[in-house]
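User: Predict the complex with magnesium ion.
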Amino acid sequence: MLNIVIFGAPGSGKGTQSARIVEKYGLNHISTGDVLRAEIKNGTELGKTAKGYIDNGQLIPDALMIDILASVFDSLKDSKGVIFDGFPRTIAQADALKAMLKERGQEVSVMLDLEVPEDELMTRLIKRGQESGRADDNEETIKKRLVVYHSQTAPLIDWYKKDGTYRHINGLGTMDGIFADICKAIENI
Ligand code: ATP
Ligand code: MG
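Assistant: Here is the predicted structure with magnesium ion placed in the model:
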């Protein structure tokens, strides 16, 4: 299996580039943000819990998130590979992902870090909030999410460098240009 972690700050383009990777390489896409938003939309207990954290710019607790991820992963049958979008977001989640994949005879093939400057992230997310009405894409919540990104998620860059799977991608440019760089990184695995 080709298992890809797509990584980056909120608004770095993980969802956009994931869709293209899925199409080109025939992978399954697991977006934890999309999973949680679907639960909120359906009014489930999990959705109610998640909404409290998301609207406040915080992460869902690791134990809960790790269970969700494992059950979504196990629901995929005969997959050529998976793109993990929005997971892991903490060191505990990265450790859990490694262990979960190992138990299933799998591993992360590559981690793609989409790097985008902070002022550009802010511009993109405010625009997305205006167009899509996503509740957490407002200036106050975006600022909290960026603080959470720097304190809890960015340490994963060193984690994946040590793991040997880290690849840097310049996330500033045209969507096609960025996708071309991603394809190069995937084909170099
Ligand atoms: P992007 O714009 O690059 O797709 P994003 O940060 O805007 O990224 P999502 O990945 O959709 O958005 O996540 C939205 C919210 O869902 C997060 O702010 C967080 O509250 C929650 N969430 C998603 N994934 C996780 C996770 N792995 N652990 C904890 N909380 C998560
Ligand atoms: Mg997303």
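The first helix runs from residue 14 to 25.
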